[in-house]
C-alpha cells in the first residue's frame, strides 16, 4: 500500500491480506482461472449508470466501521428486491465480513433474485479476488486507489476488463484522482468519507468532480441523505450516487429510495 498516515484502511488491509493468503493456499489461482471460463456473462454496470439522469447504486451493508450495526433484520434478498422495485440502477453488495458484516454468498443469492447489475464491495488487494468476484456473480468490482500501487491499479483494471467486469475506481483526494485517470479508469467513485474522522462532506465530490473529464462517469459515494443532497450533486454534473447507510437505516427502505430519487415527498 502507498506510504501515508495510518487510516482504517491499514487495519482492513492487514485483515484482508491474511484472509486472501489463506484462500490462495486452498485454491491456487490457476484453478480459479479455469473455473471462470464457465461463469455466466456479466450484466452491464456502466450502461446501467449511464442511461439514467439520476442513477442510484443502492448498497446492502449491515454494519460499518463508522456506525456499527446498521440493521438487525439480515435479509439481503428482501432488501435487494426492494431496491429493484423502487428504482435503483444497480446494487452494491458488501462481501467483507470482518468490518461490514457482509458475506460472499449474498452476491449469489441476490443475483438469482434481481436483474440489476451487482457491484462487489470489498477490498481488492490481489488478482485472485478479481477472479473470485467473477465466480461469485459480481458484474463490477471496487478498486480503491488508496490500497493499490500504481502498477497494481493498472494491472487490476486490465484484468477486470478482460474478465468482462466493470470497475468502480474509488478516490478520496486530488492525487488519487490523478492516479485513477492516468490508469484509464472509466467509472470514478469519489468518496466523501474522511478515513481518519469518518466525517462525510459532499464538497469532496463537488470539488473533485470538476477535474474529471466528461467522458468518464462520476459516482458520488457516502454521506448522501436526502433528495436535496442529490440535487446539489446533480447541479455539479454528477449523475450517479452510491448510498448505503441512509437506506439501510430507514424504517421503510422502498419509500426512502423513492424520496432520494425525487419520486416521493418525505413525510413531515
Ligand atoms: O461506511 C463506513 O463506515 C466506512 C468506513 C471506512 C471505510 C469505508 C467505509 N464505507 C465504505 C463505503 O464506501 C460506503 O459503504 C459507501 O460509500 C456508502 O456510504 P454510506 O451511504 O455513507 O453508507
Automatic annotation (TrEMBL):
Gene3D superfamilies to which the protein is assigned, alphabetical: Aldolase class I
Matching Pfam families: IGPS
Keyword hit for Amino-acid biosynthesis: yes
Domain Indole-3-glycerol phosphate synthase: 10-260
Domain of life: Bacteria
InterPro entries in UniProt: Aldolase_TIM (IPR013785), Indole-3-glycerol_P_synth (IPR045186), Indole-3-glycerol_P_synth_dom (IPR013798), RibuloseP-bd_barrel (IPR011060)
Pathway stated in the Swiss-Prot or TrEMBL entry: Amino-acid biosynthesis; L-tryptophan biosynthesis; L-tryptophan from chorismate: step 4/5
Class of the enzyme per the UniProt entry, highest EC level: lyase
Keyword Plastid: no
Swiss-Prot/TrEMBL keywords: Amino-acid biosynthesis, Aromatic amino acid biosynthesis, Decarboxylase, Lyase, Tryptophan biosynthesis
Catalytic reaction(s) noted: 1-(2-carboxyphenylamino)-1-deoxy-D-ribulose 5-phosphate + H(+) = (1S,2R)-1-C-(indol-3-yl)glycerol 3-phosphate + CO2 + H2O
GO molecular function, one term: phosphoribosylanthranilate isomerase activity
EC number: 4.1.1.48
PANTHER family: INDOLE-3-GLYCEROL-PHOSPHATE SYNTHASE, TRYPTOPHAN BIOSYNTHESIS PROTEIN
Protein name: Indole-3-glycerol phosphate synthase
